[in-house]
Amino acid sequence: MGxxxxxxxxxxxxxxxxxxxxxxxxxxxxxxFFFIGMAVCLFCGELSAIALELLPYDKQFFxxxxxxxxxxxxxxxxxxxxxxxxKPGRRMLYECSVMVGIGFAILENAFILGGMxxxxxxxxxxxxxxxxxxxxxxxxxxxxxxxxxxxxxRKLFRTGTVAMLAVATVYHATYNTIVQSSHLWMGVLxxxxxxxxxxxxxxxxxxxxxxxxxxxTN
Length: 218
Hints:
The structure is a single chain. By secondary structure, the protein is mainly α. The chain has one domain. Helix content is 85%, strand content 0%. The longest helix is centred in the last third of the chain and has 34 residues, at 184-217. The radius of gyration is 18 Å and the shape is globular.
């Protein structure tokens, strides 16, 4: 059957490539970072396969203690390049950061569920979609938030990015640990519960920014 991971990546990537000629502006940027997230997932998947053969760890230990670190690091790199090269606004930065995580999660879910096609159920798909999908999106959003200070507060950008990358790594590792335990549902609910205060905070921040902009205009 060949490399299933590569086959799935190509089948998803080609329609996305076609969409670049149709979409414009922020939508095109979001689709691009969705594609980048999938590419990072493919790279990390191949890297994990090599590391598992070389390191004396089983798959569960690796996914809970090692994989979260380099996955979050590689997901953060394209966001960092985007910040320094294009200097996007905060809203666009947040959107593109989330799309990296969503793209990563969708391809990762396809890898995992495709590998267990004989036993997988709709319930498994729902749990993977809610759990891993939200988890990866929240982690890259956190890193994007740290990077959003690069053009206003350089010192806060350095410490904030490192801090949020550490938070994303620990959060990712915690999620992986819980979903592989007997408390699977707690792991699935963790990103769902986390999403609520994040959305409230983002909405409040956006409203405050709009009020400040209106004051400055007046």
